[in-house]
Amino acid sequence: MQISGKGTFITIEGIEGAGKSTAIKFIADWLTKKNIPHVLTREPGGTEIAEAIRGLFLAHHQETMCADTEILLMFAGRAQHLANFILPALQRGEWVVCDRFTDATFAYQGGGRGINLQRIADIEQWVQGELRPDRVIVLDLPAELGMQRIRTRGGNSDRIEQEKIAFFERVRQIYLDRAKKDPARYCVIDASQDLEKVQTEIAKVLAKLGEKL
Ligand code: TMP
Predict the structure, then answer these.
(1) Distances (CA, A) of 86 to 38, 151, 169, 189
(2) Per-residue pLDDT at 153
(3) Are strands 135-140 and 8-13 parallel, antiparallel or unpaired?
(4) Phi and psi (nearest 5°) for 131?
(5) Which of 100, 115, 157, 178 has most ligand 1 atoms within 8 Å of CB, for mutation?
């Protein structure tokens, strides 16, 4: 896959309860105020077919979903999302703000489910070629706190949300490991602190990225 676009690709990651939705709203407002053309999207999902895959992935089933099936579903949706939404937007020169992307596959299927990380990297290369997010914002917090926030929010848990704390701690660890290995592309923000502080840090990341425009 060739990347010929001039857009900027940002992804927001973190375990459940980290505050991704609030962060994304803040980013969208920031970009709007600066008159920067942008689109918001999410994974799994983002196109009609990829949203159908999301539904299948998150639903409860009688049968256990294999970890390999989870990975292949994630990358099937991602191929669709890239071809029909992300790459066209980047080629138009827009910013693409994506709620989760491939780091989530490393974290959830690699860390959470224990799938070999190299196998995920091989599929990543196949589906994405050289395309990687310009910046990955990792909203970090202890799994226990994330789960508390989810419980307070209420509602029914999806297939992943019903996992145990230890699963989300493994997910968190992979996000942190990946961020440590590539500090130029990743930014870890302490999501347990006040919302205002989180937003100040996000604004700094955006301003720095915006400088290259
Ligand atoms: P969310 O959009 O509410 O965060 O739900 C998406 C769920 O899907 C979340 O639990 C993380 C999980 N997920 C994976 O397991 N692998 C992936 O590659 C992605 C993008 C999400």
Answers:
(1) 11, 33, 30, 25
(2) 87
(3) parallel
(4) -65, 125
(5) 100
Asked whether 185 and 135 are in contact (CB, 8 A), the reply is: yes
Q: Is the CB of 139 under 6 A from ligand 1?
A: no
Distance CA 114, CA 106 (A): 9
Give nearest CA residue, ligand 1 atom 3. Answer: 16
Which among 47, 68, 99, 108 is the best mutation to test ligand 1's pocket, defined by most ligand atoms within 8 Å of the CB?
Answer: 108
Is the shortest distance between the CB of 44 and ligand 1 below 6 Å?
yes
Ligand 1 near 111 CB (within 6 A): no
Average pLDDT for the chain: 95
All structural domains of the chain: 8-211 (3.40.50.300)
pLDDT (0 to 100) of residue 210: 86
Give the CA-trace dihedral at 86, 87, 93, 95, to 10 degrees: 20
Q: State both tokens at 11.
A: 């992804």
pLDDT of residue 6: 86
**CB contact at 8 A, 41 and 76:** no
